[in-house]
Specification:
Length: about 70
């Protein structure tokens, strides 16, 4: 999809300085992929208090069962 946008020059230069991208198109694609990756990753801290293990949970025993 073709889109025209105004991008802050200083921000663009900073992004190029931390990227291996050679073109603005490549830089924008890299930035969007990173944005999606970061936003869709579930932070471990978000799971605090959500995941609970049984009192008799034995991870070593489970390893033996898997082979």
């Amino acid at each position: 999809m073709r889109t025209n946008i105004v991008i802050d020059d200083e921000l663009l230069n900073q992004a190029f300085s931390v990227s291996n991208a050679k073109t603005k198109k490549d830089l924008i694609h890299e930035a969007l992929k990173e944005f999606v990756r970061l936003k869709s990753r579930k932070e471990l801290t978000d799971l605090a208090g959500v995941v609970s293990f049984r009192e008799n949970y034995d991870h070593k025993k489970l390893r033996k069962l898997r082979g």
